[in-house]
UniProtKB/TrEMBL annotation:
Keywords: Disulfide bond, Electron transport, Redox-active center, Transport. The active site is at 30 (nucleophile), 33 (nucleophile). Residues 1-105 form the Thioredoxin domain. Disulfide bonds join 30-33. One of its GO terms (molecular function) is protein-disulfide reductase activity. The record marks 31-32 as: Contributes to redox potential value. It comes from Bifidobacterium pseudocatenulatum. InterPro entries: Thioredoxin, Thioredoxin-like_sf, Thioredoxin_CS, Thioredoxin_domain. Belongs to the thioredoxin family. This is Thioredoxin. The keyword Ion transport does not apply. PANTHER family: GEO12009P1 (PTHR45663), THIOREDOXIN 2 (PTHR45663:SF40). The record marks 24 as: Deprotonates C-terminal active site Cys.
């Protein structure tokens, strides 16, 4: 599966319709974004079970603001409609592969229960 251009209008539908979504917030003028683009594209081709979305922050400033994107590129991972990772900066291919493996293995419900237990203590 290739990457998909996502806008403010369809972002929520994408998140609600897919169990695991990787989102690349980027801009055409951003050098590191251009460097990270092929890594993101290659990851999308190697993982057809994951939805890979690209959000142009200049075309979708409201979405970038709502996601608290302060620098580009910013990678966000959403699993079961919950943000489980967000980081600015271009990842190396090996780091991207590690992140994908971790996201696939993550049990969001167990992580939320553990966090609730820690907060109660």
């Amino acid at each position: 599966m290739a990457t998909h251009a996502v806008t403010s209008q369809d972002f929520n539908q994408v998140v609600e319709s897919n169990d695991l979504v990787f989102v690349d917030f980027w801009a055409t003028w951003c050098g590191p974004c251009r460097a990270f683009g092929p890594t993101f594209e290659k990851a999308s081709e190697a993982n057809p079970d994951i939805y890979f979305a690209k959000v142009d922050i200049d075309q979708n400033p409201d979405l970038a603001s709502a996601a608290k994107v302060q620098a580009v590129p910013t990678l966000m991972v959403i699993k079961n409609q919950q943000i489980v990772f967000q980081q600015a900066g271009a990842l190396r291919a090996s780091d991207m592969d590690d992140l994908i493996a971790q996201a696939k293995e993550l049990d969001v419900n167990a992580a939320a229960a553990e966090e609730a237990t820690e907060q109660a203590q």
